[in-house]
Design a protein that fits this description.
Blueprint (H helix, E strand, L loop, with lengths): L2 E6 L8 H14 L3 E6 L5 H5 L6 H12 L2 E7 L7 H7 L11 E8 L7 H12 L4 E2 L3 E4 L3 E3 L5 E3 L1 H26 L2
Parallel strand pairs: 1-2, 1-3, 3-4, 4-5, 4-6
Antiparallel strand pairs: 7-8
Helix pairs in contact: 1-6
Length: 184
């Protein structure tokens, strides 16, 4: 079965966007995909800031990216762009490290004002890294991923529907790619 790697670019491991990641991972895992996650915030900060390509943690993370058939790139939107911690990791991926990968961006911001962040900030960088099959992605706004009175994170039904549609297309494209790769 195809392998999917989630690159979580949020600087906080308790972010509400983790509920979106878990929703995607559970959905894809339920379809038989092997899903792994890179939490960029858990990589050594010095390795990221000083672009230590030879760092054991960076080599391992880049190995996961290299082995993946498809990637999900997740980030909250800060100051009209994805996070700096995500950018530092993307800078450490080899020049054509995303060639042949199917990519699904999942972003979340405070308002619809930054809806085009995926298109104008992320996609050019992914293209430079060799990605040619970048799906439209899903942009969520904060109220769609909210904490309830008990402190649990709830995803709005409308967002679940958009996630299901995007994940369905992503799964279909990934299965097609994996099928082509498996043929002699």
């Amino acid at each position: 079965m195809a392998k999917i790697v989630v690159i979580n670019g949020t600087p906080s491991l308790v972010s509400r966007i983790n509920a979106v990641i878990e929703y995607a991972e559970n959905g894809l895992g339920g379809k038989g995909f092997e899903v792994e996650r890179i939490n960029v915030a858990e990589l050594p900060p010095e390795d990221l800031i000083h672009t230590k390509f030879e760092s054991e943690a960076i080599v391992k993370a880049n190995g996961l990216v290299a082995e993946a058939d498809a990637l999900i790139i997740v980030s909250p939107v800060y100051k009209a762009s994805y996070t700096g911690v995500l950018k530092t990791f993307l800078d450490l991926i080899p020049q054509k490290g995303l060639a042949g990968k199917i990519v699904l961006p999942l972003f979340m911001g405070g308002s619809l004002a930054h809806l085009l962040t995926i298109d104008y900030a992320l996609k050019p960088v992914l293209s430079v890294l060799g990605a040619r099959h970048i799906l439209g992605g899903v942009y969520a706004v904060d109220p769609q991923v909210a904490r309830n009175d008990a402190g649990a994170v709830e995803i709005a039904d409308e967002l679940k529907l958009r996630l299901d549609n995007a994940l369905g297309e992503f799964a279909e494209e990934t299965e097609l790619k994996a099928g082509r790769k498996a043929r002699p």
